[in-house]
Amino acid sequence: QKEVEQNSGPLSVPEGAIASLNCTYSDRGSQSFFWYRQYSGKSPELIMSIYSNGDKEDGRFTAQLNKASQYVSLLIRDSQPSDSATYLCAAPNAGNNRKLIWGLGTSLAVNP
Amino acid sequence: DTGVSQNPRHKITKRGQNVTFRCDPISEHNRLYWYRQTLGQGPEFLTYFQNEAQLEKSRLLSDRFSAERPKGSFSTLEIQRTEQGDSAMYLCASSLEVQAFFGQGTRLTVV
Fold it and tell me: Following CA atoms B41, A45, B26, A4 in sequence, which dihedral angle do they give, to the nearest 10 degrees?
């Protein structure tokens, strides 16, 4: 059973701090990983994708991938109250359908 | 707006009624997915289309659920004889390769 696991939180950080969200996966064949942000009652929004070991930066967001450890993380710098949401980690199935295998999500609260 | 569009956004129905949802994917995307999400859970895969072909259907999907994607463009998801356990957010996503983009979702409430 291929799995993606996340700490459900809630993770609470003060405004301006760095929020660190973590995800582990079981399928060593996984090649790409995605972070989605989901506000309450809304659909998931793709915010980061990462395919190679190392770091990928996009504005205040940095995704980190370590394939040897089967670990992917998302760092949010200078956290804002508007970042308060659930963050979902996902990896596509290795088969042709590319359906996403999801973690349960980590709830982040940024306190002003 | 060239994103994924879903209609309706909300649907309240009585138990036993049939409902149909529509998804219009991003125009050049050949892959289309339906997921279902309940509170506190990640999205649950329902079915997958590549162009007009339905290539996979979750075993969790009972025979009350059917999906179509005629002509490989928009897709519909029908639920027959709805049950209270069908209450959830139904999400449609489309992709060209691996990056999937979601529509706004259709929230179904069965009373």
Answer: -50
